[in-house]
Structure to design on (497 residues):
C-alpha cells in the first residue's frame, strides 16, 4: 500500500517536487530555478520546455533523495503559478513561443480597449475579475493577434492553451501520446473566460476576446483523478490541481468562512474563505474559487493580489546588486533602527489590488543625504507589509469580517524583521505553520483526498500546527504615521504611462 503523496509546485522562479507522508511531513524535496526573460520593459516570459525539463529533473532528484519508487506514491498533485499563458501544438508537443508570465503588461492596449467599450463592470460581474493585464484571456488574444499563422493549426484542432498546471498535467500524462488536456476551477477562474457562478467557459467572453473554445482545456474540480502518469511514474493517479494561492489556502487548513491566509512569494496573495457563495468585491479584490472537492459545492474566496513582494528583494540583489543573496537583506535592514523616511513602492508591472492601475510604475520616495543601503533594504521589506495592510483593509470592508490573526506562508516568512513589522502594522498576531511548504502540501492534500489516502478535511486540519507567532508591539500613533506616508508614496506612482 502506498504511504506517500507527491506534489509538483511549478512556481514563477522555480519548480519544486516534494513528497509528503500521511501526517503532512516532508520526506524529500528537490528544486530548480528557470530563466526569466525580459524582452522589453514590462514584458516577462518563461520557456515552457525548460520548465517541463526542470520538472522531470526535480522529480528524479526528489525520488532519488527519498529512496522511494513509483509503487510508494499514492497520488500526484499539481500546483502552479497562475495566469502564465502557453499555447502549444498537441501533435508535436512544442509551444508556440515562450509563455507569457502573469506579471507581463503587454496586453495593456487590449485592456484599455475593453475599458473604453464600457465593459469593465460587466466583465467583473460575470468573471469576478477587474480588467487587468494580469489574466490569461487577454494574453491568449495577444498571441493569436500577433501570430495569425496559429489559426491554421487551430482549424485542424491541433492547438492547446493552458496555464502551467495544464501544461504539466498534459506532459505528465503522455503529452503528444494521449496527454490529458485539463484544468481545475481555480486556474480556469484566472483566465477572464469563465462565468464565476457556473464555472464553465463563457461564450460571450470568448466572443469578446476572439478566443476559439476548441483550444481550451476541460474544467474539472480541484480533487479528482484526471489521468495517470506516463512519464517517470508508471500509472500513478494525477488527482490534485490547484493554482498556487488556492493550494496554500488548502494547505493552511482555511476550510471555514472567515479564515484567511497570506502567501509571501514572488508576489503576495491574501485569500479569505467566503463560503459557497461568490462575493463580488466593491473594493478592488478578486472573486475566485478557493477550491472544489469532487462533486461537492465550490468554496469561494476574496483575494487580494500584490504583484511584487519577494521579487523586490530579488531586484535589489540582481539589478542593484546591493546584496549578494536574498537572505542578506535582513541583516542589512537591521543596521538601521527605522526606514529613514524612505518608501519603496514596487509598481514594476503597475499596481494590483486594491488599485488595479496598469499605468503606475515603481518609485522610491523620501530620499535625503542621510539615507543609506540599510534604510533602502528596510523600506524594501516594509513595502510588502504595507501592501498587505491595504489588501486586508479592502477585505474587511468587503466581507464585514474583522481579522483577528493572519496565517502566513511562503519564502519570505523566514524573515523575522518583516514578520514582526507585519504584525505591528496590522495590529494582529501573525502565525506561521509547522510545515512551511503549504502550497505543495495543499496540492498533495487535494490529490490524496481524491484517492482515499486522506478521508476528510478534519483529518487534514488535525495536521496543521503552529511553528511561530509574532505579536504586535507598535503604538497606534507610529502605526498611523507610517501608513499615511506609505499611502502618500503610492499616489506618486500613478499616471506614469
Amino acid at each position: 500500500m502506498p504511504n506517500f503523496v507527491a506534489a509538483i509546485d511549478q512556481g514563477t522562479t522555480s519548480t519544486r517536487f516534494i513528497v509528503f507522508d500521511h501526517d503532512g511531513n516532508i520526506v524529500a524535496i528537490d528544486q530548480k530555478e528557470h530563466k526569466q526573460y525580459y524582452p522589453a520593459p514590462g514584458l516577462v516570459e518563461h520557456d515552457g520546455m525548460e520548465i517541463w525539463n526542470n520538472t522531470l529533473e526535480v522529480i528524479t532528484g526528489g525520488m532519488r533523495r527519498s529512496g522511494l519508487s513509483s509503487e510508494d506514491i499514492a497520488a500526484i498533485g499539481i500546483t502552479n503559478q497562475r495566469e502564465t499563458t502557453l499555447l502549444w501544438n498537441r501533435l508535436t508537443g512544442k509551444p508556440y513561443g515562450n509563455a507569457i508570465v502573469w506579471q507581463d503588461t503587454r496586453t495593456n492596449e487590449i485592456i484599455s480597449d475593453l475599458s473604453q467599450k464600457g465593459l469593465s463592470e460587466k466583465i467583473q460581474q460575470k468573471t469576478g475579475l477587474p480588467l487587468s493585464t494580469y489574466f490569461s484571456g487577454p494574453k491568449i488574444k495577444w498571441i493569436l493577434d500577433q501570430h495569425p499563422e496559429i489559426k491554421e493549426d487551430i482549424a485542424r484542432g491541433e492547438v492547446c492553451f493552458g496555464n502551467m498546471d495544464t501544461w504539466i498535467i498534459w506532459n505528465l500524462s503522455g503529452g503528444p501520446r494521449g496527454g490529458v488536456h485539463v484544468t481545475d476551477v481555480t486556474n480556469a477562474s484566472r483566465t477572464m473566460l469563465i462565468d464565476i457562478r457556473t464555472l464553465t467557459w463563457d461564450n460571450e467572453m470568448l466572443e469578446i476576446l476572439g478566443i476559439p473554445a476548441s483550444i481550451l482545456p476541460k474544467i474539472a474540480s480541484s480533487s479528482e483523478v484526471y489521468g495517470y502518469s506516463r512519464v517517470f511514474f508508471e500509472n500513478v493517479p494525477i488527482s490534485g490541481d490547484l493554482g498556487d494561492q488556492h493550494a496554500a489556502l488548502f494547505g493552511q487548513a482555511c476550510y471555514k468562512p472567515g479564515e484567511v491566509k497570506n502567501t509571501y512569494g514572488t508576489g503576495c496573495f491574501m485569500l479569505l474563505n467566503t463560503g459557497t457563495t461568490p462575493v463580488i468585491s466593491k473594493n478592488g479584490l478578486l472573486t475566485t474559487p478557493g477550491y472544489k472537492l469532487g462533486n461537492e459545492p465550490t468554496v469561494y474566496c476574496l483575494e487580494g493580489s500584490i504583484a511584487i513582494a519577494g521579487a523586490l528583494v530579488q531586484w535589489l540583489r540582481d539589478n542593484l546588486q546591493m546584496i549578494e543573496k536574498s537572505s542578506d537583506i535582513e541583516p542589512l535592514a537591521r543596521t538601521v533602527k527605522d526606514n529613514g523616511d524612505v518608501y519603496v513602492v514596487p509598481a514594476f508591472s503597475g499596481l494590483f489590488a486594491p488599485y488595479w492601475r496598469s499605468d503606475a510604475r515603481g518609485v522610491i520616495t523620501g530620499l535625503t543625504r542621510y539615507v543609506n543601503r540599510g534604510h533602502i533594504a528596510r523600506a524594501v521589506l516594509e513595502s510588502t507589509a504595507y501592501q498587505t495592510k491595504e489588501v486586508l483593509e479592502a477585505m474587511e470592508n468587503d466581507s464585514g469580517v474583522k481579522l483577528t490573526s493572519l496565517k502566513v506562508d511562503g519564502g519570505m516568512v523566514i524573515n523575522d524583521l518583516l514578520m514582526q513589522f507585519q504584525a505591528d502594522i496590522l495590529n494582529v498576531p501573525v502565525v506561521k505553520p509547522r510545515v512551511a511548504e503549504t502550497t505543495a502540501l495543499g496540492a498533495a492534500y487535494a490529490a490524496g483526498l481524491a484517492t482515499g489516502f486522506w478521508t476528510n478535511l478534519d483529518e487534514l486540519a488535525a495536521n496543521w500546527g503552529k511553528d511561530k507567532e509574532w505579536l504586535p508591539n507598535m503604538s497606534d500613533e507610529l502605526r498611523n504615521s507610517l501608513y499615511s506616508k506609505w499611502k502618500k508614496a503610492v499616489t506618486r506612482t500613478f499616471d506614469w504611462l
Summary: DSSP finds 16 helices and 21 strands in the chain. The two ends are 59 Å apart (CA to CA).
